[in-house]
Amino acid sequence: MSKDTILIIGSQGQIGLELTAELRTIYGNNHVIASDVKRPEQEDGPFEVLDVMDKENLNNIFKKHGVTQVYLLAALLSATAEKNPRFAWDLNMEGLFNVLDAAKEGVLKKVYWPSSIAVFGPSTPKQNTPQYTVMEPNTIYGISKQAGERYCEYYHQKYGVDVRSIRYPGLIGYKSAPGGGTTDYAVHIYHEALKHKQYECFLSSETELPMMYMPDALRATISLMEAPAEQVKIRSSYNVAGMSFTPAQIADEIKKHIPEFTISYAPDFRQAIANSWPQSINDSHARADWGWQPEYDLSSMSKDMIEHLK
Ligand code: SER
Q1: What percent of the chain is predicted at pLDDT more than 70?
Q2: Exposure letters 136-166 (e unless 16+ CB within 10 A, then b)
Q3: Structure confidence at residue 2 (pLDDT)
Q4: Which of 71, 112, 141, 174 is catalytic?
Q5: Which end of the chain is more exposed for a tag (fewer CB within 10 A), N or C?
Q6: Ligand 1 centre and the CA of 183: distance in Å?
Q7: Is residue 141 among the annotated active site residues?
Q8: Could you give the domains of the chain?
Q9: pTM above the 0.90 mark?
Q10: Is the pLDDT of residue 1 over 70?
Q11: What is the tens place of the pLDDT at every residue in 81-100?
């Protein structure tokens, strides 16, 4: 077991909730400090109230707990960011600067920062999107992730900061709720299918997007962080793929378990965001560099989601 002390920033979010639990299982509760802007009702390990934009408090927490690794998960996602672009930029970038600066000063040994398929834009090839390609994101979330990737690589090259990152596709899990993303429908649909046997989707039936089941996302994240530094050849962010599907395809899969289920479509502003993103991702670099391989497809994920949500 490593003697590192890990700080999760954004521990109450969709990824944070599950990653905190997983890391505590691996490293022990007291080696994993959870933090978020609000104190949760229940915590099974150390917790700090933290606004990542508050650099002084952040540095105090680093000192108080002897933090050596950070998972920086606090951010506004694509749909919420479009409603408050200036705040999204400030939160998504300030937080990253504060953490990267601490790593540059030698306080932190390793940093994890998530990027997204939102770094790609309408001019990117949509199928089997390569690691290196045209990137002209046109959402504020994508622009902040793109700038963040550039900063991560810069801090690595210039100051030797050990920063690691994954471009997450849409993430789907049963333990935590997504908040403010364009891919959130793929989580809500399971809840609504079980509760009301019907779902109104905010994307059109044929909108194909890259997605991943949470256990795969956690495994990808932790294996990237545990890989020997020399294997982590990309310091901007890695493409990783799980599966790709459309709302019509996920609905058909759900119908295999809940035959009465029906879906209707009422695309809103999120349709334009989805249209600007890739449909499938080429993750050959992640596979070659640190052995990435997804386990879940649409059918095994749906079976697992429905079993657990029941
Ligand atoms: N799931 C995210 C979103 O929809 C993509 O990173 O915003």
Answers
A1: 99
A2: ebebbbbbbbbbbbebbbebbeeeebbbbbb
A3: 56
A4: 141
A5: N
A6: 6
A7: yes
A8: 6-170+213-239 (3.40.50.720), 171-211+243-279+296-309 (3.90.25.10)
A9: yes
A10: no
A11: 999 999 999 999 999 999 99
